[in-house]
Amino acid sequence: MSHHVPVGAARNLAWIATLLACSGGPAEGPKVPENVAAVSMRLDFEGNSVRITGARDPSADAKYACASSFSACLNFSSEGTTDVVVGLCPSEDAPAGTWDFSYEVFDGADCAGAVPPNFDCPDTTGETLPAGVVTTNHVTCSSLTAGKTWDFDIVNLDPDCPDGATCEPATPLAITYSGSAAAVRTSLGLAVGAVGPLPPTGGSLSDSQVNVTVPTLGTLGALTVQTQGAGATANSSATVTGVNFGVISGLVGVTATLIGSTSQTTCPPTAAASSTITGLALQPLIGPPIPITATGAVNQVVLGLPVGVSLILNEQVQTVTPTSADITVNAVRLTILGLNIIIGQSHSDITCTPP
């Protein structure tokens, strides 16, 4: 089987596939809800399967309950049909965007079995999925000795809306936000350059300062913090420069050129965060500075420090559920004899209540 598609020589090689996406009813045919989409596929033989992965660029703003990405394994029945995956965002949704699709064929059901060797299905890129307008594009999958042509039609479809019925538009997601950011926080309740939390309706909060004094610790050259929530995204960031903290509790001080963090949560629920740390060093009471290298790894524990001192870089804690996401990132968490000092903290969370 090194140079043919293992689907049975008696089967012909014409594949007919239909990709359906939508936002609003077509000019003719049954009425359908706005901002609802589907993926369906027809094939003239059974026993095989295909995984189709799609992504919209950029993601829609989640005003409606639709998805900007999907990955579906589709099995073929004896009638040449598959299950339907619903919920794609059309190109017209804000912000406007196009879709990219990729395909992987399997000789067994449930995307199991062998992937035919040398069988290439080129990606479809920059595909416009208009609202209620049927369009067709063609993709040819081929090996050295066999080929299959896919025909994709794009149109509005909701399998729960019967033919001839009048269906209501999809209900927008109910999205709420929260978020905060701080240049410095300690376990004693000190907060410098802190904004948030955001109200549930979202919005934006920010603060910038220069030549900042941090009580009992030292100074910062500058700080910038912000948190915001709008559309399908909540994000926060905190950046400090020129960190110069004196020796704390007789053990170590802290210096750094730059310490920063960012966090983001989205609907559908996802969470991501990162940290940037340059020029970080600990200054013992006696002896030369201890340079610290940030690897970028999440929850990096720095070893070899004086007794009573611990240091975690890019500390992240997140929770993602089917309807919500939250994440907190601490660029630097320094603990000295039980005192927690956090530099560069960002927090974002979002709740995506379905209709």
Topology readout:
Blueprint lengths: L15 E5 L17 E5 L6 E9 L11 E7 L9 E2 L11 E9 L17 E4 L7 E8 L4 E8 L19 E13 L4 E5 L7 E12 L3 E13 L2 E16 L3 E15 L3 E9 L2 E4 L5 E2 L8 E3 L6 E13 L2 E13 L2 E15 L2
Antiparallel strand pairs: 1-2, 2-5, 3-4, 3-6, 6-7, 8-9, 10-11, 10-22, 12-13, 13-14, 14-15, 15-16, 15-17, 17-18, 19-20, 20-21, 21-22
Structural class: mainly beta
Percent helix: under 10%
Average pLDDT over all residues: 75
Radius of gyration, taken over Cα atoms and rounded to an integer in Å? 27 Å
Work out the number of β strands: 22
> How would you spell out the order of helices and strands?
EEEEEEEEEEEEEEEEEEEEEE
Strand coverage percent: over 45%
Low-confidence residue ranges? 1-45, 145-170
Number of helices: 0
Give the terminus-to-terminus CA distance.
49 Å
Question: Major beta sheet, specifics?
Answer: 7 strands, antiparallel
**Overall geometry:** elongated
User: How many discrete structural domains?
Assistant: 2
